[in-house]
Amino acid sequence: MTPLLAAALAIAALAALFAAELKRERAKVDAPTLGERIDLSMRPNLALLVIDMQEDFTAVGGRGGWDERYMKTHLGAIDIMASKALKAEIPVIAIRHVHRMPLIRLTVRLFGEGRGLPGSKGLGLSPELGLTPDFEVVKALSDGFSSPELEGYLQAKGVGTLLLTGLDGCHGVQATAHGALNRGYRVEIVENAVLSRDEGAWRRHLAALTGRGAVLI
């Protein structure tokens, strides 16, 4: 075996190992959490969750950006839900994501323009959203319930029904929905206020969620 071939094989092996570990990290991040089941009879209230609608993740155009019309339509739908929640005195909870897994951070730094990394200037809610949340949660996993502060707030407010909006349907939204169902919450997904880069995969996630009792509104 020539030195050049040996080097090429070593590089290929390292690349395969990196890809496998990155896939493992992503699966860990997207896995819904488990938790103690709530007593719905003691949780009569609703809350609106706005998931991962941060400036870093809502950019339009360019590499990795969203289609402008698609983003504008969904931002408008979320704003409408937030306005309705305000009038009905339903708390609006903004859930924000920060990448913390090492290989995901490296990948985002190299290929994702650093979006969602600690210290990024775009970790706050998109300025295009016209809402001021009643509460904010920061998470490092896709499931919002991975941050205990979310459950603590919902318990304090007597919330048993969650209205879900935001992105991405295949990541933050589906994981948070499953985390809520695992705890016995009623889950209502505001279909026109959920964004996804893979509509086919999002439809499959929706089928799984509705099969568990989630409702589309």
Automatic annotation (TrEMBL):
The Isochorismatase-like domain, residue ranges: 47-217
Stored InterPro entries: Isochorismatase-like_dom, Isochorismatase-like_hydrls, Isochorismatase-like_sf
Residues of the signal peptide: 1-19
Source taxon at top rank: Bacteria
Entry's Gene Ontology molecular function annotations: hydrolase activity
Pfam families linked: Isochorismatase
Annotated keywords: Hydrolase, Signal
Name used for this protein in its record: Isochorismatase-like domain-containing protein
